[in-house]
Amino acid sequence: MTAPPANALARELFAPIGPTYDRYARLLSLGQDPRWRRFLVSRVPVVPTDTVLDVATGTAAVAIELARRTGCSVLGLDQSSEMLAAGRKRIERAGLEERVRLVQGNAERLPFEDGQFDALTFTYLLRYVDDPGATMRELVRVTRGGGTIASLEFGVPRAPHWRALWELYVRLALPLAGRAISAGWHEVGHFLGPSIRALPPPEQLAGVWRDAGLTDVRFRRLSLGGGVVMWARRA
């Protein structure tokens, strides 16, 4: 089956950078990415007997944090074999092979039963799918009633002066820094700014979540609006 255009673009972008993703994601986010992920995990109320699906798991940073903080079991899913390979090494170094497992798959066609998971997380996903509403419905489908879904995305600062600094960073500094690292990171540096601007603001995304069957939708802007964590419950 041919991958949708947004999926194919994401695979092409991230395949070359799997081994260096964690190091430079921290650097290029000015140290904020790990803090955002920790806050995301703090919004997911699970216990050691629960199982969480972490979609777009990448190198398993959120999956590892979930297992460490809550003791739950985590199944991480990502379409990139290169990112998953890096994630498996991280899980082994963390000694969490018994609680965190990774599989390759697509967020728009999850190979799981209805209500199979107690909670679900996803990170930097909706910019890489062609139909965010349909993808949200698929994520809700595999989450049990009352279970929490939480996400992390980049955001655009609302205050004019911070927005101006953000634009300067993503238009100039980010591509230049990426080029200094590698050709793959140079491509990512050029892509991020336009892709973040194209994503609807959290107020609008909250409506997409509600339409997908979620209730009590909340969000918090972090780091002056550069990151956005959103969470809700399946009705």
Mean pLDDT equals 89
From the 3D coordinates, which CATH architecture would you assign?
A: 3-Layer(aba) Sandwich
Spans where pLDDT lies below 50 across 5 or more residues: none
Radius of gyration: 17 Å
Task: State the total count of DSSP E strands.
Answer: 7
Task: Give the C-level CATH assignment.
Answer: Alpha Beta
The biggest beta sheet is recorded as:
7 strands, mixed
What count of structural domains? 1
Q: Portion of residues in helices?
A: 40-55%
Question: Span between N and C termini?
Answer: 33 Å
The share of residues in extended strands comes to 15-25%
Give an overview in words.
42% of the residues are buried. The chain has a single domain (5-156, 200-234), classed as Rossmann fold. Helices cover 47% and strands 22% of the residues. The protein has a 7-stranded mixed beta sheet, with helices on both faces. With 235 residues, it is an alpha/beta fold. Helix 3 (33-42) crosses helix 4. The two termini are 33 Å apart.
